[in-house]
Amino acid sequence: MPFKDENVKRQRQKQLKTVERAQTKELLHALDMLVPFRERNDRALNGVLKSKRSNLHLLEDLREALKSAQESTRGVRAFRIPAGLLREGMLSSRSERLVVVEMPGWRVVDVSCKMQADFDSGLMFGQVRGQCLLHFIDERDRHKLHELSRHANGRRRSKKAVEMGVKMRFFSPNSIVHRACTLKMWQDGRDGKMVVWVEGSSAVIEAEDWHSRDLTSLRGVLHFDSELSRSTPWHIDRAMRFLVKSHTGLLTRLVPVLESSDSSSSVLEKMAKYTGSTLDNLTSALGRMVMLHAEVHLTIELDHHTHLPVAHVHARIRLPHVRTRELSCPIPLDEPSVLQVLGAFRTPWKKLLRASTQDDFGPSLCDASQIVRFIPSVDEETNEFCFLAYFIRREDMVCFHSRKLQFNDKRMEQSGQVFADAWEAPYSFSYTMSRTGEEADRVLLAQLAEESGDHTDWM
Predict the structure, then answer these.
(1) Consecutive 10-residue runs of the chain (459 residues): their mean pLDDT?
(2) Is the pTM of this model over 0.90?
(3) Is 408 helix (H, G, I), strand (E, B) or coil?
(4) How do 220-225 and 193-199 pair as beta strands?
(5) Which residues pair with 302 in a beta bridge?
(6) 61, 83, 187, 393: which has the fewest C-beta neighbours closer than 10 Å?
(7) Is the peptide bond before 104 cis (omega within 30 degrees of 0)?
(8) Cα–Cα distance between 129 and 111 in angstroms, integer?
(9) Residues contacting residue 235 through CB under 8 Å, at least 6 positions apart
(10) Which domain of life is it from (predicted)?
(11) SS3 at position 241
């Protein structure tokens, strides 16, 4: 029935218009409360709205309000804070950790007040400015920064902010603490600098309670474990000489120390002869043979002046009763001296190293061109004791290499990276010294106790 359908349609349209008028009225009343009132002199206000404005007056006032807001926004955009002033303001922060680095080498050129306070109160060496930021990042996360350096060195710089998660090293008054952080980085102008905001590290860097940690369990005799090692000290020392030609490494320190004993010197000369080397010019074969037959005596204790962990390392040569093939060295069986070489033989212990935070105190890896500091730490994953060794140029106190030494009751693992420039692929190394099962030498412990003037914590 067409007539009935038309009535239904008209009734529905009427209902829709009623709803629409109600919604419009509600919207106008809401706008009347929000839109600023503008004075008028040309006409009387007798509108139906609460403000006595008519709908037309309300729309006029809304137009003027939007126009004013738009002009205000343009004014804000036109006023720009100079980048240098903004950076200085950020660096004055005493609550946030920010670093400005020069790319692609990650060289620190400035830090915020908060970051500077961290370094000033900790075991930091020299000034933080001029250091390479990579040496304050856990080596397991450095590949992320190396990759960014390669992009920066290739001039593929992005204006977009870069964000990455890393574990960063912070200096406490008596240790190095690792914290999981987010580095938020953006380019600072066109001069190759980058601002790094270290987020998630606002907690106070607290000192470690070394007196509550049992360091005596780490004492004992260790030997180079070729099966668990990816590198040898000879290859590491060789790589380090590309950074510092006069570098003093483990082998360059070990051989002269062993030579100071007549019995050790005789064995070393035989090793040099069998490998076709000389002691003045260590080859890879001789270096490997020395490490396979060297043992180190490790003692870690708290220094009674600094109250910081110190490692005393002694070295000797040990030649056990083994078959020649187990030596992994080219000693012919028909040599008359073979029985002397293969006999049970131990040379006296000789002082090799005193690893501590102090410079040139006792036997060390320090020389005319480098300072080496061993800063105590705790591995955040295993809770094992560590030393983080920092190799520093004497001339400017800038760190050029760092490595990690991690200890437990079974072994000592040493790992690190050698690189001259941050954008180069680093030489990554690791080697292991495993416990022989022999307990710490009580005579040697007594000598160390006598030297330190303490007789309670050693025996």
Answers:
(1) 62 76 79 78 69 79 78 54 64 84 93 86 81 94 90 63 90 91 83 86 79 94 95 93 84 90 86 87 89 94 92 90 41 38 73 86 86 93 95 92 96 95 91 94 90 60
(2) no
(3) coil
(4) unpaired
(5) 309
(6) 83
(7) yes
(8) 8
(9) 284, 429
(10) Eukaryota
(11) coil
Give dist(CA 104, CA 194) in Å, integer.
Answer: 9
Residues 393/400, Cβ–Cβ less than 8 Å: yes
| Tokens coding 121 | 């109160």
Helix or strand (DSSP H, E) at 289: helix 284-293
Rounded distance between C-alpha atoms, residue 326 and residue 293, angstroms: 12
Total residue length of the chain: 459
Beta strands 427-435 and 411-418 are antiparallel
8: which 2 tokens?
A: 């239904």
Calpha distance 380→378 (Å, rounded)? 6
Q: What angle do CA 327, 329, 335 make, to 5 degrees?
A: 95
Tokens linked to 404: 């990690």
Distances in whole angstroms, Cα of residue 132 to Cα of each of 41, 332, 391: 71, 49, 12
Type of residue found at 192: G
List all residues 6 or more positions away from 58 whose beta carbon is below 8 Å from its beta carbon: 28, 31, 32, 35, 47, 49, 51
Residue pointed to by tokens 């069986």: 333
Exposed, middle or buried, 276 (CB in 10 Å: 0-12/13-18/19+)?
Answer: exposed
- Work out the number of other CB atoms within 10 angstroms of the CB of residue 438: 13
Looking at this protein, which amino acid is placed at residue 37? Answer: F
Other Cβ atoms less than 10 A from the Cβ of 124: the count is 19
For 221-240, the DSSP string reads EEEEETTT-SS-HHHHHHHH
Q: What angle do CA 210, 214, 215 make, to 5 degrees?
A: 85
